[in-house]
């Protein structure tokens, strides 16, 4: 077992234990290893920390040389949100694609294979799946991260995902409780508000979380959203009514409660991360996620000291902090036990569950009259600003795969009010493949397609976001996500690969 550094008292150890910080670089910094020796029990990984599976395995081994029961967490949803394959795009389609197929066995198999790859690299806690019902088409941050807009569909696939992931020995962290789907604001930037009634929340938002709890999810992530029907004063992450009253009491959940990133502006710009962390633990949270943006020893020290001071001044009950720390340790014991049962067998040679799932997720309109392209086209990506959860580093689209299948293909990225005219000029006489992402949310994108299709009705349109807009083009392909395998599946249709 881990031997803690001498001089670290129980209160300070508990305060460190409930933190899930991040760091920069692809090797463990000295300060992080020192904090693990002092009681820190979790580390959060992001794309900046990962160069290859081999490097990641060596990194997690560094952690375990200092603390053998460390929780190594990652935000690996697959699909648009990937950290393992942040620079190449994911080998797995995301939730929206799996929901479009609506085969719970496929969802379970995809989650299991993703979990197996995480476990091989030493990661044992995944901040996934998203169980949000994407009921608001204008949602800027959930979208294809959701299994869909139908509550029952989301519920059954969230449960299947939890089961598949945890069967590989990786703890699932179902998010974003009590549901981030009916928002038009990204909580990375501001505090969203959901004005649904308590009855609507019970019937729509909470059903997938009930299903995930029934499936045995080991962790649950809170959302930085204000839901007046549940608590008119505080966002869910800081609300005792939501975390203790609803999640613990009414829903009967007894696993780990993790906060969403505390440096997100919904909390940082309203309460501050120190005050927010104290309020979150007091409300019932067991682990404080921080490190997406603030990723240094100073942040860990500030949050540790804020929790210790809150206990010493009576603002935070020592018993509540101790209970939170024990839940972290309990999850660490579960992951150690799951790892001891052995790494799940590799899939049979020749099977690529992610690509197979991406192919099944395609929805084609106009395919009956379509002949695959035989000459190199012009692939035009109408590119929106990426949300923070996805990030700018992860490539998307179909261009790379079409280039591989049809050498000589030319490509370009376009945005803004002149995008349509710019595409026509760049393409010249080549056949156009226009790639969009959430056309329904971007008037400039819809306008660009209007311009392109008016001049070039033989254009192929590939929608890689939520296919809310009406299909159009000589062929319309909805991929239900922008993972690398989704792009390949679409390119196979375009080029007959």
Describe the structure.
The chain is built from 17 helices and 14 strands. Strands 2-3-4-5-6-7 form a six-stranded parallel β-sheet, with helices on both faces. Helices cover 41% and strands 11% of the residues. The model is unreliable at 1-7 (pLDDT under 50). The longest helix has 23 residues, at 318-340. Helix 14 (399-405) links the parallel strand 10 and strand 11 (410-414). With 497 residues, the chain is of the alpha/beta class. Helix 6 packs parallel to helix 7, helix 10 (273-283) crosses helix 11 and helix 14 (399-405) packs across helix 17.
Annotation, overall tally of beta strands? 14
> Which strands sit side by side, in order, in the main sheet?
2-3-4-5-6-7
| Secondary structure category | alpha/beta
Individual helix count: 17
| CA(first)-CA(last) distance | 53 Å
* Largest β sheet strand count, sense and barrel closure: 6 strands, parallel
Radius of gyration: 23 Å
Overall pLDDT level: 93
Question: What percent of residues are in strands?
Answer: 5-15%
Low-pLDDT parts are 1-7
Shape by Cα distribution: globular
Helical content band:
40-55%
């Amino acid at each position: 077992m881990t031997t803690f550094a001498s001089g670290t008292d129980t209160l300070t150890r508990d305060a460190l234990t409930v933190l899930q910080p991040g760091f920069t670089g692809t090797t463990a910094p000295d300060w992080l290893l020192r904090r693990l020796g002092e009681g820190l029990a979790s580390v959060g990984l992001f794309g900046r920390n990962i160069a290859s599976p081999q490097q990641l395995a060596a990194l997690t081994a560094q952690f375990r040389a200092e603390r053998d029961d460390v929780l190594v967490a990652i935000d690996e949803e697959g699909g648009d949100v990937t950290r393992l394959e942040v620079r190449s795009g994911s080998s797995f389609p995301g939730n929206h694609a799996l929901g479009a197929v609506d085969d719970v066995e496929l969802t379970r198999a995809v989650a299991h294979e993703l979990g197996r790859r995480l476990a091989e690299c030493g990661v044992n806690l995944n901040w996934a799946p998203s169980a949000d019902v994407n009921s608001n088409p204008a949602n800027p941050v959930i979208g294809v991260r959701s299994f869909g807009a139908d509550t029952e569909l989301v519920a059954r696939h969230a449960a299947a995902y939890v089961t598949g992931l945890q069967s590989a020995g990786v703890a699932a962290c179902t998010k974003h409780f009590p549901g981030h789907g009916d928002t038009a604001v990204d909580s990375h930037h501001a505090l969203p508000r959901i004005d649904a009634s308590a009855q609507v929340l019970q019937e729509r938002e909470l059903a997938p979380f009930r299903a995930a709890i029934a499936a045995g999810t080991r962790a649950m992530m809170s959302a930085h959203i204000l839901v007046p029907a549940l608590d008119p004063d505080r966002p869910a992450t800081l609300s005792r009514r939501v975390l203790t009253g609803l999640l613990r009491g009414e829903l009967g959940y007894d696993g780990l409660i993790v906060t969403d990133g505390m440096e997100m502006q919904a909390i940082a710009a309203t309460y501050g991360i120190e005050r927010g962390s104290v309020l979150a633990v007091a409300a019932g949270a067991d682990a404080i996620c921080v490190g997406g943006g603030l990723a240094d020893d100073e942040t860990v020290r500030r949050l540790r000291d804020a929790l210790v001071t809150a206990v010493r001044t009576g603002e935070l009950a020592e018993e509540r902090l101790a209970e939170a720390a024990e839940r972290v340790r309990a999850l660490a014991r579960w992951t150690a036990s799951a790892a001891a049962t052995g790494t799940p067998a590799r899939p049979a040679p020749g099977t690529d569950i992610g690509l197979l799932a991406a192919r099944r997720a395609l929805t084609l309109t106009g395919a009956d009259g379509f002949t695959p392209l035989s000459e190199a086209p012009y692939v035009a990506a109408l590119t929106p600003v990426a949300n923070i959860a996805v990030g700018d580093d992860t490539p998307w689209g179909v261009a790379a795969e079409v280039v591989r299948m049809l050498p000589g293909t030319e490509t370009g990225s376009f945005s803004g009010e002149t995008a349509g005219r710019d595409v026509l000029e760049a393409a010249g006489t080549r056949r156009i493949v226009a790639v969009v992402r959430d056309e329904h949310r971007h008037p400039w994108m819809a306008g660009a397609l209007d311009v392109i299709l008016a001049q070039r009705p033989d254009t192929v349109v590939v929608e890689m976001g939520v296919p809310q807009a009406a299909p159009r083009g000589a062929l319309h392909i909805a991929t239900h996500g922008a993972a690398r395998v989704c792009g390949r599946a679409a390119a196979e249709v375009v080029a007959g690969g």
